[in-house]
Amino acid sequence: MPRDPRSAEAFDLARYDRTTTALDVVEGLDLAGRRALVTGASSGFGAEIARALAAAGASVAITGRDLDATRGVAAGIERASGRPVAVHALELADPASIDALAASWEGPLDILVNNAGVMGLPETRTDRGWELTMVTNHLGPMRLALGLLDALRRSEGARVVAVSSATHLRGPVVTDDLFFRFRTYEANQAYSQSKAANVLFAVEADRRWSGDGIRVNAVHPGSAQTGLYRHQFIDLAPYEPKTPEQGAATPTLVAAHPAFAEVGGRYIAEGREAEVVDRTTPDLSGVARHAVSAETAERLWRVSEALLATW
């Protein structure tokens, strides 16, 4: 008989490498009684994060724009875990959709994984003229976290995970021009800026919320040919692509492992806090100093709050 992973010792961080999967990470963890919400879980990393959390006993809710696909993922998780999985519609570029989900949440929320996002969009703007990558990858997830803040506060030790990317190293957030009104739009630059914003969000949210028992971190899951790349082909060979199960490992680790219970305001890659670097490396390792600047994080928060107040 296979051993029950929840009766084993917790996963040893020293064993973490590029082949580690999300299910490896939850080995030995008992998340019974914990409630988790994972966005962008109709496929890819989000589906595997949700699968692992449910396997460890958490009560999981997932979101996706494609409700049929999301319900299919939920059904598979239910069969594997024997636990019901709630499905919610969520469009991160639509404040009404975000607010509806936040308003419908009842009770505490222990784990929020802001995984949903877009990449490589042709220049697309909302009816307000806001660039869609920044709206979907930063402003929408921030609005959701703020909307669920009371639920997170009701948890005994909540965690928020912002899924970022190593591509944040390719450029800083331009707080005076988030929406490319004064710069020529370039899709990769827009994505990199939004992923740097995810790290800055984690830095400032953790500073603001850690006193309420909420720890916030950003993670780099690794590269894999998932649905995120639907708008462009990316040659992933230089970045040693992972499977979705492997890419979900670091987000799951930060969301669930006891080693990260008191860690906040950090950027975690390959299961470890990344070294702060001052220049882009060929393998995109480390975390850019511009992405962990407390001053920039506070400024981006103020700019974002002002935008959200008018949205």
Give your account of this protein's structure.
- The structure is a single chain.
- By secondary structure, the chain is an alpha/beta fold.
- The protein has a single domain (16-310), classed as Rossmann fold, CATH 3.40.50.
- 37% of the residues lie in helices and 13% in strands.
- The chain has ten helices and ten strands.
- It has helices at residues 22-25, 44-55, 67-81, 95-104, 132-147, 149-153, 187-209, 244-247, 249-256, 294-310; strands at residues 35-38, 59-64, 85-89, 111-114, 158-163, 214-220, 267-269, 272-273, 276-277, 287-288.
- An eight-stranded mixed β-sheet has the order 3-2-1-4-5-6-7-8, with helices on both faces.
- Helix 7 links the parallel strand 5 and strand 6 (214-220).
- Helix 2 packs parallel to helix 3, helix 4 packs parallel to helix 5 and helix 5 (132-147) runs parallel beside helix 7 (187-209).
- The chain is globular and about 50 Å long.
Please give the structural blueprint.
Elements: H1 22-25, E1 35-38, H2 44-55, E2 59-64, H3 67-81, E3 85-89, H4 95-104, E4 111-114, H5 132-147, H6 149-153, E5 158-163, H7 187-209, E6 214-220, H8 244-247, H9 249-256, E7 267-269, E8 272-273, E9 276-277, E10 287-288, H10 294-310
Parallel strand pairs: 1-2, 1-4, 2-3, 4-5, 5-6, 6-7, 9-10
Antiparallel strand pairs: 7-8
